[in-house]
Design brief:
This protein is α/β, with parallel strands linked by helices. It has four helices and ten strands, in the order αααββββββαββββ.
């Protein structure tokens, strides 16, 4: 059986995600946070590169004050993402995604940091289906991001056996859902 093309699959998954009730969304998000914050990678990370939930992504907002972490949020510059330090109470600039002020200090990724990456879906090999902009694939291909531990953040219903992929697609090292944390085995 042929896989549907990425645009059709995106539309289907968006529809599925929109069918999650607000109460379920809150409950599932809390369970994702539970599994995330109990993992040793979370406890040892000094910097966490996160996101502000849009379009039904798991909501991690209550983590902002958790455990003295240095938080980075993405800001788009053309076709790239740069991560600025962000703290609770600091205003975000509205746009396609909520972004930190461009005057906020830039963060440099360090080995052992965590990068939390939302998506429409992940597969069991760690590949993601995002919104089609390629921002995270370009980011993860950069050498300075190789030592950062990449965690896909989704709800369990969107962890699929296999997704269509392109040669430039970049995989994560783990996926965290409301049902647990899954390490992705490296190929080979």
């Amino acid at each position: 059986m042929l896989e549907p093309p990425k645009p059709q699959l995106r539309a289907h998954l968006r529809g599925q995600r929109q069918s999650i009730s607000p109460a379920q969304h809150r409950q599932f998000s809390q369970q994702v946070i539970h599994h995330l914050t109990r993992h040793p990678r979370w406890r040892t990370a000094e910097q966490v590169f996160g996101y502000v939930s849009i379009q039904g992504e798991p909501d991690l907002d209550c983590l902002w004050d958790e455990g003295g972490k240095i938080w980075g949020l993405p800001r788009r510059y053309g076709q790239t993402l740069r991560w600025h330090r962000w703290q609770t109470g600091t205003a975000l600039i509205a746009g396609t995604i909520p972004e930190p002020n461009p005057d906020a200090p830039l963060l440099t990724p360090q080995p052992g940091d965590l990068l939390l990456i939302p998506a429409l879906a992940y597969d069991r090999q760690g590949y993601r289906l995002g919104y089609g902009g390629g921002y995270f694939d370009r980011l993860l291909a950069q050498p300075e991001w190789q030592g950062v531990y990449r965690v896909g953040i989704i709800f369990q219903a969107f962890l699929l056996p296999l997704l269509p992929r392109d040669p430039w697609d970049q995989a994560v090292q783990a996926v965290c859902t409301e049902q647990g944390w899954w390490e992705i085995s490296p190929p080979g």
